[in-house]
Design goal:
The chain is an alpha+beta fold. It is built from five helices and four strands, in the order βαβααβαβα. Helix 1 packs parallel to helix 3 and helix 4 runs antiparallel to helix 5. InterPro entries: RNase_H-like_dom_plant, RNase_H-like_EbsB-rel, RNaseH-like_sf, RNaseH_domain, RNaseH_sf.
Length: 132
C-alpha cells in the first residue's frame, strides 16, 4: 500500500549525494505534514545513511543539509530508523527519480492516497520479487 509518493526536479545539485539528501529532506517534510510519528527512511546510498546516522559528514560541504535532516528526524518523530537497501530493492525510488527528471527545474508532484500507475506497477514488481 502506498500512502504517498513524490517526484521532483531539484534543478542544480552538486552530486548524487546532494540529490539523495534533498530527496530525503523532502520526504521528511512530507511525513511531518502527514502527521507521521514513526518513520523508516530507506536509501540505496550507504553514504547518506552514514551521514544521517553519525557526525562524520557534518563538516562537509553538504553538512548543513545533513544536520537539518538529523534535527528534523529528532524533533518530529517518536521513532526513526534510517537504513540502506540494495539498489535492486529500490526500483520505486528509481522510477520516481526518472519521472522527476522530466519535470521542469524546481517543479515537484506529490500524490497522496492514490499513486500513478507507474508507481503502483513498480511497487507490485518489488513485492513480487520478495516472494520469489
Amino acid at each position: 500500500m502506498v500512502i504517498a509518493a513524490g517526484a521532483g526536479n531539484l534543478g542544480q545539485v552538486s552530486n548524487a549525494l546532494h540529490s539523495e539528501a534533498m530527496a530525503m529532506l523532502h520526504a521528511i517534510n512530507a511525513a511531518i505534514q502527514m502527521g507521521c510519528h514513526c518513520v523508516i527512511m530507506e536509501t540505496d546510498s550507504v553514504q547518506l545513511q552514514s551521514a544521517v546516522n553519525n557526525e562524520d559528514y557534518d563538516l562537509s560541504t553538504l553538512g548543513a543539509i545533513f544536520k537539518d535532516i538529523k534535527f528534523k528526524l529528532r524533533v518530529s518523530f517518536n521513532h526513526v530508523t534510517v537504513v540502506s537497501c540494495p539498489r535492486t530493492c529500490n526500483v520505486v525510488a528509481h522510477c520516481l527519480a526518472v519521472y522527476g527528471t522530466k519535470l521542469g527545474a524546481g517543479i515537484s508532484e506529490i500524490w497522496l492516497d492514490e499513486s500513478p500507475d507507474f508507481v503502483n506497477d513498480a511497487v507490485a514488481g518489488d513485492l513480487s520479487s520478495i516472494g520469489s
